Amino acid sequence: MSSTMVILFFESVGIFMCLYFLLQFIILRKSEYLYYSIYLLLLVLYYMCATPEVFSFNNNPSIVATLEILKRPIQFLISVFYTLFIIHYLNLEKQSRPLYRIFRILLALYLVFSFICLFANIFKLPYDTAYYLGSMVLFPVQLYMVTALFKYKVPYGKFVIWGSINVIIGSIFTLLLGIQNAKYPTGFVSNAGSYIPVIICILTDIFLFTIALQRKIADNEKSLINVALARQQAIANERERIIADLHDDVGGGLSSIRMWSDLMVLKEGNNPTIEEAGFASKISATAKDISQRMNTIIWSLNTENDTVQNFAEYVRQHGVNFFENSTILFQYYLDAHIPKDLTLSGRQRKNLFLIAKESLHNILKHSGGNMAEVSIDYNNQYLSLTIKDNGMGLQNGNTFGNGLKNMQKRMSEIKGSFDIHSNNGTVIQVSVPL
After folding, report:
1. Choice among 56-65, 251-260, 381-390 with the minimum mean pLDDT
2. With pLDDT > 90 as the criterion, what percentage of the chain qualifies?
């Protein structure tokens, strides 16, 4: 009864693990997992053939005869697919060409023995003595080949090697018990009981390989994470290089353009025409505008500015400087409950700031009011930016022109919402999920 329970337990584990490794093959596309899955499936079929009494097949002579024909051919096919698994899992073709060639010879022998056993069983040729002698000769060869693998430092290979040694030793005990049962059918061990040693060893092998697989998957995940981190670091380094180049080269060049265009107008003894002075002023203004835009790009690229607190301070400074020499009073409010470590992406920061910048520009140019207010709030994981004035409101439909479309486009890029309406002036409110 205990032998029956062990075999039935092994069969259920074998089917489950067969499906598990087949799934691993589908996910990872590694041929060794397919070979191991077929190996387990053949093991399940083999013990159905070898122990028909466990599955109540012994009451049907025709089924028993068919299973007896298939038993030994399947046994050698098991060795075929387990050897294929070892070859591919340990990558023997690259790790050791001599061992790879010898394992290929073993593969050919297993296939030949499988066909010989099938042929002999079909035609009922006696070959038990040759089978047992051949099996006994193969065991030391297999043991030597597996132990030779210890020389090669293959990742996770020790689990497979020890598991294989374990299975070979268990197979030897089962073979010896099988020989005893063949000579003494009424011996102290039943047919099903003779397979218990190798079944226990195979279960141990499955357990060891499962550990190896889980470690390999975990290490692969860690490797992917490290690669992703390395890519992020490389991107950060490239961003820092771009920032430095923009600041040092382009920024310096724009400053020189502004300086020389100003000198064209202010240089003593130089009397430029009105047209020349106008060109110089336009050059200076254009260079200044490009410089401001470049500074915004640099600021958005710099990951040190990712916090909402930094963004809010940048908007405040821009507003103060922008209205410094105007008749408009600039007011600024920041939600005191915003977490210090709350962050925005570079794209979010840039788009939100450019909306604020465009809105403040329109207030100065078109609103006709004398007050501009910026509020930044955080509620339910949404950051809200509100810009309002006390001017004429939206009476002039051309007040924003293409600027309104640009604002809406910027918010759609960062999956935010945009709203504009009149309320004792113009109110623009944008909100973005964090």
Report:
1. 251-260
2. 32
Residue extents of the structural domains in the chain: 2-231, 304-434
Residue pair 284/261 in contact (Cβ under 8 Å)? The answer is yes
- The DSSP-derived string for 325-356 is TSSPEEEEEE-TTS-TT-B--HHHHHHHHHHH
pLDDT tens figures, 299-333 = 766 777 788 998 899 899 889 988 988 899 999 99
> In which band, very low, low, confident or very high, does the pLDDT at 377 lie, cut at 50, 70 and 90?
very high
- Closest residue by Cα to residue 2 from 156, 155, 190: 190
Tokens of 77: 């096919």
The token pair at 365 is 């140019």
Taking the C-alpha atoms of residue 294 and residue 121, their distance in angstroms, rounded to an integer, is 85
> What are the backbone angles phi and psi of residue 161, rounded to the nearest 5°?
-65, -50
Helices (H), 302-429: 308-322, 346-362, 402-413
| Domain range 304-434, CATH class | alpha beta
Radius of gyration of the chain (CA): 40
pLDDT value of position 186: 63
The residue count for the chain: 434
Q: How far is CA 355 from the centre of its chain?
A: 35
CA atoms in the 13 A half-sphere facing the CB of 430? 26
Residue 177 CA to residue 411 CA, distance in Å, equals: 78
Contact criterion met (CB below 8 Å) for 162 and 201: no
Whole-structure pTM over 0.90, yes or no? no
